[in-house]
Amino acid sequence: MRFFTALCLSLTLITTSAFAQSFPSFVSEDLNGDTHSLPADFPGDPTIVFIAYKRNQQPDVDSWVAALNLDPDIGPEFVELPVVGSLTRLISPVVDNGMRSGIVDTSLRARTITLYENASKVNAPLGFDGRDEIRVLLVRPTGEVLWKISGPASSQGVEDLKSIYAQALK
Questions:
Q1: Are 143 and 42 contacting, i.e. CB atoms less than 8 angstroms apart?
Q2: Per the confidence metrics, is the pTM higher than 0.90?
Q3: For a Cys staple, 51 with which of 36, 106, 135, 154, CB 3.0–4.6 Å?
Q4: Rounded CA gap, 130 and 163, in Å?
């Protein structure tokens, strides 16, 4: 029985590492107009990444920011990635100006990098589907995804993220 348990655990570890997910590569601008190559230009190692697809999902992102006590000037590094669709690229100045008007803090603007991509280009490599929930990830600049979840903050999700973040710093 112990052999069987050990075998199953070994296969699980091999399968998990063989199918480890990596953050896809994108080049885009933050709301201050600075260009970033993602994930290489994520500000921390690791970085907390919030992906949102719809304007009404901002309260879900804010629930995580508040629960984690994130400050754009100190503490754990984080970014917000609104995914607005590739067709929207044609009106990107209008979209970015609209977001800029809602974010007056330049530190927060630097952490908001708009992705003018189809949601599937972001989701598929990460194992997500759809646009109905935000995504929260912990990602290294190499693209290695250390942790991920969908939806607004929950006490268990916040505790899990804090734990994985602390381990990643060691």
A1: no
A2: no
A3: 135
A4: 27
Per the DSSP assignment, residues forming a β-bridge with 147 are 138
Contact 137, 148 (CB under 8 A): yes
Gap between the terminal Cα atoms of the chain? 35
Which of residues 158 and 91 earns the better pLDDT score? 158
Cis peptide before 152 (omega within 30 of 0): no
The residue among 117, 85, 113, 116 whose CA lies nearest residue 100 is 113
- CB proximity list for 95: less than 8 A, separation 6 or greater: 84, 88, 114
Rounded alpha-carbon distances, angstroms, from residue 16 to 11, 21, 47, 49, 167? 8, 9, 22, 21, 18
Q: What is the mean pLDDT of residues 110-129?
A: 95
The residue type found at 146 is L
